[in-house]
């Protein structure tokens, strides 16, 4: 089955370095994730969305809730590092919406409301 948006999928694969097609949806990543109660989609569903080329994954709360604890990678029988995929998705959101975010230009209230992982991803974007 051809992905709906092959360019999106290819870009996620390129940024993450992960072969998402290896995932056979066993759910081990989701069952080991300590943050699933805060997510709108389970990590395995995000991976499936990427496999299918569904850019709606970029609108998910899950990509910002992922704490990159790597439980998913340890549990994955195929060795997929789901945290790398989540980071790639965060990168795509940040690159789409913002050319450059300067933390000095944000108010303390804006910084408080930003997911911390967004700040980390932004800094990675500037150094990658």
Topology summary:
Elements lengths: L5 H11 L11 H5 L10 H9 L10 H4 L5 H5 L6 H16 L10 H6 L2 H12 L1
Helix pairs in contact: 1-6, 6-8
Write structural notes for this entry.
The chain is mostly helical. The chain has a single domain (6-127), classed as Fumarate Reductase Iron-sulfur Protein, Chain B, domain 2 (Orthogonal Bundle). It has helices at 6-16, 28-32, 43-51, 62-65, 71-75, 82-97, 108-113, 116-127.
Measured distance between first and last alpha carbons: 33 Å
State the shape.
globular
Q: Which segments are poorly predicted (pLDDT under 50) over 5 or more consecutive residues?
A: none
The structural domain count equals: 1
Q: What is the number of E strands?
A: 0
CATH architecture: Orthogonal Bundle
Helix segment tally: 8
Please supply descriptive tags for the structure shown above.
128 residues; mainly alpha; Fumarate Reductase Iron-sulfur Protein, Chain B, domain 2; 8 helices
């Amino acid at each position: 089955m051809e992905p709906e948006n092959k360019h999106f999928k290819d870009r996620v694969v390129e940024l993450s370095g992960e072969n998402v097609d290896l995932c056979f949806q066993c759910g081990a990543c989701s069952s080991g994730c300590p943050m699933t109660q805060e997510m709108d989609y389970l990590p395995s569903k995000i991976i499936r969305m990427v496999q299918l080329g569904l850019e709606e994954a970029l609108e998910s709360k899950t990509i910002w809730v992922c704490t990159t604890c790597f439980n998913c990678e340890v549990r994955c029988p195929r060795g997929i590092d789901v945290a790398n995929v989540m980071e790639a998705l965060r990168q795509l959101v940040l690159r789409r919406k913002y050319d450059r975010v300067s933390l000095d230009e944000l108010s303390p209230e804006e910084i408080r409301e930003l997911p911390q992982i967004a700040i980390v991803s932004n800094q990675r974007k500037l150094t990658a």
